[in-house]
Design brief:
Elements: H1 20-29, H2 35-53, H3 57-68, E1 72-79, E2 82-89, H4 92-108, H5 115-127, H6 132-146
Antiparallel strand pairs: 1-2
Amino acid sequence: MRKNKAKKHLIKPDPIYGDTMITKFVNNMMIKGKKSLSYSIFYSVIHSIKNKLKEDGILVWRKAMHNVTPSIEVKSRRIGGANFHVPTEVRPDRKISLAMKWIINSARKRNEKTIRLKLLGEIIDAYNMTGNAFKKKENTHKMAESNKAFAHFKF
């Protein structure tokens, strides 16, 4: 057990929009500590969204994040020698991090040439409620719905 509760790290807002959620997204996107490259990729994707959809890129990205954010997830719980998948509500900070990770991982698995095009496609798909990240959310909700009978085993 921990002696003290872990402190929350303060995340600085991004330089252009002044939003900490963008910084978290860029931190999740980052590989091998190349944050400036991640920022340039993210901002170019937002600019491309603005040109392609003729809407504000940040608002499209926020709506895509909202569409992918799960409200319920399934956790394994061992009771009496059997494993049960117990549906539980997701904490607010975990909701955001799951949505970010799902969008980024789905974008990396796409077949476009560059990460900019992959991320652009995945954000637009999430905005339109299609794509792998949105399907992941739907599958999570379906699993929670099908295992609703074990909800009384909550932690």
